[in-house]
């Protein structure tokens, strides 16, 4: 399918926007300073001191040449003063080198610390976000833009500090030049300003281009992952998808390449043109200085000082403006990053203040609940009315897509019902602090996460504060039969799981599930929810797991979702969902007598086993 071409309109970019992005710079520096104040101030001190060295060196150079000229003409040579000057220049050169290295080192260290800090912030912020926002592609684009350019932001720090340093260098050099020849300043402006305008303009456009490609970049990342990852490898090989994925990747990348090449060429073309103007102005200045020297207005030392200063000034100014554009360009990303950190979620995100009852007394209730997923017009579930009594084990049954998992997500307040309400002991759940409410539940989803961490961590994820409580971890493993898995692994609980890392071991689907179930036992939750956690277990293991579950969670409230009726019948009551509505609700015996969908499906499965 042809992709719509994105327009590239460099002229549309506004200067004001470019400067506006700089308003985030103070906050950025505040963050860096907080990361390591001592290193930050040391860096600034080194830069400020380093900034006055160039003009000092040029000045001493001038004095050396003037002294050499004097000594050539002198009948009696006295070189003491000359050697003192040479020694001074040498000392300045050594100092400058030491300072520069110190600056690079502290830049690198600060940069590393800052980028760790940012990544941690992004992880934390992402966890604050509601599920509906996480599933939203606009949010993902923001996240992507916040995440990229972490290294760019580190460069930004050193660029801004270098900028401050260079302002001092430029000011001191300018002062030197003005004293001798104020006219040179005009030539300097002529040589620099066009380049600056050009650079600022193009930096904005390249940012706009990169920004408009956020979605596609995510797509590229995904294609790279789909084409080259252990998770997809089996099917990619089997279905011979490698070429298809590689070509799709290439097609999309080429499109971006073509557009950014066009921009880079324009930028380089105009840049070279303005540079020629700059060089012409420099040589104009050089000619002026030579004329003055020949006329006897300037000494030879003045000539070297002035031409050296002018050349340096031009380089520094050019560097200053190029860096300025790099800064505004990266600062635009900074804007994305801070916007991401400042994202505020709808007010109900954290819920109310009503304290949760210590124990569930009456139970949970869905009252006339209906729900449409965000940006969808379809009622996924509607008119849902049921009670989950305290200490009851309720099973959800229904065909694929009937809405079972959606009810769980609503119960957990991952989403708010579009209509109706959910109550806990008669209190609308919205009135509880959302995080505390969610901690009330121990949940294992059908798509539970296989953390590529140690086995211990995988179990402890159920109640991470208890990660050092070996007894509790072992207890949970025994209950879920994960201890059988542990005994087969060379490093036991310290076994690295997954294939991604050294000495990692991948497990079978059923083994992973046992570990995931241990997570539910790890938490002393009031309500347990198992959403098809046993689908990968063999029939015997599943029956055993559920029998144990029922025994071990006596006195607890639980919801079980399963497609296996031999499991489902163990529950106290069964709720049958069809097309987002409750079709039947009752005990196994009641539903069998009902002679509707449940008994039909039960008999169908039972026949399959005969
Ligand atoms: N994040 C989402 N956004 C939009 N629609 C969704 C989302 N998640 C699920 N749906 C839709 O909601 C309906 C119910 O899905 P749900 O996952 O609740 O079904 P289920 O009964 O648990 O199915 P299964 O037995 O296959 O797990 C489906 O039609 C599905 O396409």
From TrEMBL:
Keyword Membrane on entry: yes
Bilayer-crossing residues are 39-61, 167-193
Q: Which InterPro entries match?
A: AAA+_ATPase (IPR003593), ABC1_TM_dom (IPR011527), ABC1_TM_sf (IPR036640), ABC_transporter-like_ATP-bd (IPR003439), ABC_transporter-like_CS (IPR017871), P-loop_NTPase (IPR027417), Type_1_exporter (IPR039421)
UniProt keyword list: ATP-binding, Cell membrane, Membrane, Nucleotide-binding, Transmembrane, Transmembrane helix, Transport
Residue stretches making up the ABC transmembrane type-1 domain? 44-329
Keyword Magnesium among record annotations: no
Location of this chain's protein in the cell? Cell membrane
A GO MF term: ATP hydrolysis activity
Q: Which residues form the ABC transporter domain?
A: 364-604
Specify the protein name: ABC transporter ATP-binding protein
**What is the organism lineage in this UniProt record?**
Bacteria, Pseudomonadati, Bacteroidota, Flavobacteriia, Flavobacteriales
């Amino acid at each position: 399918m042809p992709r719509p071409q994105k327009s590239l309109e460099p002229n549309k970019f506004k200067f004001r926007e470019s400067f506006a992005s700089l308003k985030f710079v103070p906050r950025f520096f505040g963050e860096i300073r907080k990361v390591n104040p001592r290193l930050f101030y040391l860096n600034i001190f080194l830069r400020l001191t380093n900034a006055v060295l160039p003009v000092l060196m040029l000045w001493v150079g001038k004095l050396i040449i003037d002294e050499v000229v004097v000594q050539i003409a002198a009948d009696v040579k006295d070189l003491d003063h000359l050697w003192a000057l040479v020694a001074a220049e040498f000392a300045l050169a050594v100092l400058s080198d030491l300072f520069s290295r110190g600056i690079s080192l502290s830049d690198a260290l600060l940069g590393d610390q800052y980028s760790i800090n940012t990544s941690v912030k992004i992880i934390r912020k992402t966890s604050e976000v509601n599920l509906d926002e996480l599933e939203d592609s606009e949010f993902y684009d923001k996240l992507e833009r916040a995440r990229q350019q972490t290294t760019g932001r580190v460069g930004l720090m050193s660029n801004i500090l270098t900028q401050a340093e260079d302002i001092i260098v430029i000011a001191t050099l300018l002062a030197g030049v003005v004293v001798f020849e104020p006219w040179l300043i005009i030539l300097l402006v002529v040589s620099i300003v066009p380049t600056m305008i050009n650079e600022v303009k193009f930096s904005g456009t390249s940012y706009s281009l990169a920004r408009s490609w956020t979605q596609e970049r995510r797509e590229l990342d995904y294609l790279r992952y789909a084409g080259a990852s252990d998770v997809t490898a089996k099917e990619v090989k089997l279905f011979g998808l490698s070429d298809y994925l590689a070509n799709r990747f290439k097609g999309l990348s080429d499109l971006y390449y073509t557009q950014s090449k066009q921009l880079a060429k324009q930028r380089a073309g105009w840049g070279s043109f303005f540079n020629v103007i700059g060089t012409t102005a420099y040589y104009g200045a050089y000619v002026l200085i030579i004329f003055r020297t020949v006329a006897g207005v300037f000494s030879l030392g003045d000539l070297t000082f002035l031409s050296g200063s002018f050349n340096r000034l031009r380089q520094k100014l050019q560097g200053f403006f190029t860096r300025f554009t790099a800064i505004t360009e990266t600062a635009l990303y900074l804007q994305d990053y801070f916007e991401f950190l400042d994202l505020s979620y709808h007010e109900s995100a954290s819920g109310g203040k009503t304290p949760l009852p210590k124990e569930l007394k009456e139970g949970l209730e869905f009252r006339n609940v209906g729900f449409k997923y965000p940006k969808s017009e379809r009622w996924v579930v509607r008119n849902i009315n049921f009670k989950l009594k305290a200490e009851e084990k309720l099973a959800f049954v229904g065909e694929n897509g009937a809405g079972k998992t959606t009810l769980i997500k609503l119960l957990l307040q991952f989403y708010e019902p579009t209509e109706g309400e959910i109550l806990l002991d008669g209190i609308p759940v919205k009135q509880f602090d959302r995080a505390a409410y969610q901690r009330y539940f121990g949940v294992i989803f059908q798509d539970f996460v296989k953390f590529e961490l140690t086995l211990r961590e995988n179990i402890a994820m159920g109640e991470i504060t208890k990660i050092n409580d070996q007894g509790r971890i072992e207890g949970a493993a025994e209950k879920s039969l994960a201890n059988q898995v542990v005994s087969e692994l060379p490093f036991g609980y310290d076994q690295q799981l997954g294939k991604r890392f050294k000495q990692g071991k991948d497990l079978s689907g059923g083994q992973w599930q046992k570990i995931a179930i241990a997570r539910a036992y790890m938490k002393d939750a009031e309500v347990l929810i198992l959403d098809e956690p046993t689908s990968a277990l063999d029939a015997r293991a599943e029956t055993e797991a559920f029998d144990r579950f029922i025994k071990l969670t006596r006195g607890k409230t639980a919801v079980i979702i399963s497609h296996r009726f031999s499991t489902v019948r163990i529950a106290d009551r069964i709720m049958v969902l069809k097309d987002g509505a409750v079709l039947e609700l009752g005990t196994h015996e009641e539903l069998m007598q009902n002679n509707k969908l449940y008994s039909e499906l039960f008999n169908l499965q039972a026949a399959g086993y005969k």
